[in-house]
Amino acid sequence: MSTSTTTRPPDGPSSHGPEDRGRGMTPRSMAVWVGVAVIGAVCWSVLALSRGESVSALWILFAALSSYLIAYRFYSRFIARRVLQLDDTRATPAERMQNGNDYEVTDRRVLFGHHFAAIAGAGPLVGPVLAAQMGYLPGTVWIIVGVIFAGAVQDMVVLFLSMRRDGKSLGQMVREEIGVVGGTAALIAVFAIMIIILAVLALVVVNALAESPWGVFSIALTIPIALFMGVYLRFLRPGQVLEVTAIGFVLLMLAIIGGGYVEGSALGDSLTLSKETLTVALVVYGFVASILPVWMLLTPRDYLSTFMKIGVILLLAVGMVVARPVLQNEAVTSFATAGDGPVFAGSLFPFLFITIACGALSGFHALIASGTTPKMIAKESHVRMIGYGGMLMESFVAISALIAASVIDQGLYFAINAPAGVTGGTIDGAVSFVNGLGFTLTPDQLQAATASVEEDLVSRTGGAPTLAFGISSIFSSAFGGGLAAFWYHFAIMFEALFILTAVDAGTRVGRFMLQDTVGNVWTRFGDTSWKPAAWISSAVVVACWGYMLYVGVTDPLGGINQLFPLFGIANQLLAAIALTLCVTVFLKRGMVRWVWVPAVPLAWDLVTTMTASYQKVFSDNPALGYFAQADRYRTARDAGEILAPATDVSQMETVITNSTVNGILQASFALLVIVIVANAALIWVKALRAGSLPTTEVPAVASQLVAPADFFATSQEKAAVGAWEAEHGHSGSRR
Amino acid sequence: MRVVDPVRRALAGVRWYAKELSGEGRWDTYLQQCERDGVTPMGRREFERHLDDHRETSTQGRCC
């Protein structure tokens, strides 16, 4: 993988870091950046000023792109040079500890792809779709401003910290830099938060596949397709990954096309599965997948998932530019202030900021940025393009999802996203509910939409069907051909594919965490090759997320409505842990001057997550507070009443149990984060008093590598790499 | 010819990127490394099994 990274002798040419790349701006580049700024300003002005007229989605797209470019060029460079002082004369762990496995010097653009594939999943697709109930503007502003000042900063700084500590994990760094109490709380929080994330992701798949034989058929076929690919790579043609991925992709397309024929056939009837059946199937699948050798299922599906992810995102960007869709959503809806939207309860502050996590600020990224990526970085300067740049790319995915949800007729949007408890799951029920909200929707419109994608759309909550419908209409309009139903199921497949990969990988990571933790007291259990330990810990992890999935699926109030806030808050609390670590290390290193860089996003994140947690735990509004909800149903049950949407006593019991469980989890997450921040605050005071404190950063070792610093190599960088290659007889690499 | 060359270069670039991203290119890197070090390389099948064995215990989480 070291294709464009070569080794120089100790007395060779100096390495090329950010400090070596053109200081000062030439008149030409100044003109280019003024142009980008003007485009951005025009797009933002149009978005800010347009009310009650038709607005093209391209204004959002170009407002986002120009903001990303400016943020990357100026803010990330400022962080790289002035704040973190990335130093390319210093060897990275990949260079010092290269072992051909974990630690491996990797081409910056290839690592960018790896990192992006690991951070971008269903989150940036689902959150913005749900948040579209508040209008397109709040989501657009938060996704763009959030990523620039919070999300991308978190990813970049955590990646830097882990890289300077030989690739240590977030939990290890919290323990070593903050303390044992904070470290233990972080370990528990990371595990628990991961369980919730897996459960909600699985819930998105269940909701998308329930009563959909087409979806079930094509997604189920991904399992034999992946198994075939695994066997092909293991026994028939070892190492021919591109070849087998191409075969797998063709089979995947055939599976989607085949699904259309299955629907309406006898096989279709037996593949029309309820949410409960799908839950059991997913739990069994999750367990089996996590104990099978990775070459059989996980690795081959990861290949498909990665290429699909990158391909569809590029296709969507092209589709939007070609189709130039017009936004049907309002800029800001009344739900933003009233907080009574049917998709999820709560007003813009704080719930917009926790509903859109991935794409703006996602704590889970801190686990990736302190996982494999820091062990593969060739040069310190690459932290900027991989950490900051990778997150900007994810933010672009979120903006695309927001656009896809906002170009749908808004009556239709609410018919799809309102829980079955309020629509009754019927076309007439949905139409009457949506009309009651003040939107216009006729049964004919809803029926036509349903017919176009050959799928029932009423109360298909979870975001995936809405996104699939939006993508389908953009692609149909851009590429023609009357393939709306194909594109719809293609999009469902696209989302389900990487959710299932995330569930497999997450279960396995959870299993390792559990084995590692129990291994501290029972050494044998920590041996990852010992089958009983692997099976028991896999079963525990699957049981945990399986239970939460079941809670979501059976909740009469709607699983997404109930669990998505928990998921969002959990993810943002993880971000609070990561940013707390960043602030701590800054203060320990005596970088008080620059501490605002992670401290401002931390403060914002704590204000939003703690407000949201407080409201979910203590609010006396039963639509918002979990315990108030449980109390309301308990009181009614004791009085012998049945409260809608529950239809019998057992559903009343379900609401009481689920809301109590959710409330306890919510309170526990917030408490864990408070413990970590309190522990860190003690260190902050100590560090401020002392001026600085020792950190666990490893000592500097001189780097021997030469590599370009950014996406595109400058001519000097190309010359430096080329000169060394020529001198040492290396073949020409891609620069 | 002048039109074809950049297209050919771009396609070669895409192919290189796909090979590197999928890990298929690791075999070529390994062969080059063995040649530089004067070591006889193991067979392709054996090499890929080593990678599989490593992946078995180093699963990377996938974000949401």
Structure commentary:
The complex is a heterodimer of chains A (735) and B (64). A two-stranded antiparallel ribbon of chain A has the order 1-2. Chain A is globular and about 75 Å long. Chain A starts with 5 loop residues before the first strand and ends in a 7-residue tail after the last helix. Chain A has helices at 27-49, 58-83, 93-96, 108-119, 123-131, 136-163, 170-177, 180-209, 213-236, 241-262, 266-270, 275-291, 298-323, 335-338, 348-355, 364-369, 382-406, 410-417, 420-423, 427-436, 443-453, 464-479, 484-519, 531-554, 559-588, 596-618, 626-638, 649-690, 715-728; strands at residues 6-7, 705-706. In chain A, α15 crosses α25 and α26 packs antiparallel against α28 (649-690). The model of chain A is unreliable at 8-20 (pLDDT under 50). With 735 residues, chain A is an all-alpha fold. Chain A contains 29 helices and two strands. Chain B is mainly α. Chain B has one domain (4-56). Chain B has helices at residues 4-22, 26-37, 44-57. The radius of gyration of chain B is 16 Å and the shape is flat. The mean pLDDT of chain B is 90. At the A-B interface, α4, α8, α10, α13 and α16 of A face α1, α2 and α3 of B.
Task: List the defining traits of the structure above.
A: mainly alpha; 2 strands; 69% helix; B: 64 residues; 3 helices
The side-by-side strand order for the widest beta sheet of chain A comes to: 1-2
pLDDT below 50 for ≥5 consecutive residues: which ranges of chain B? none
Helix content bin of chain B:
over 70%
What gap, in angstroms, lies between the N and C termini of chain A? 13 Å
Instruction: Describe the main β-sheet of chain B briefly.
Output: none
Structural class of chain B: mainly alpha
Decide which structural class fits the backbone of chain A: mainly alpha
Mean pLDDT of chain B: 90
How many beta-strand segments of chain B? 0
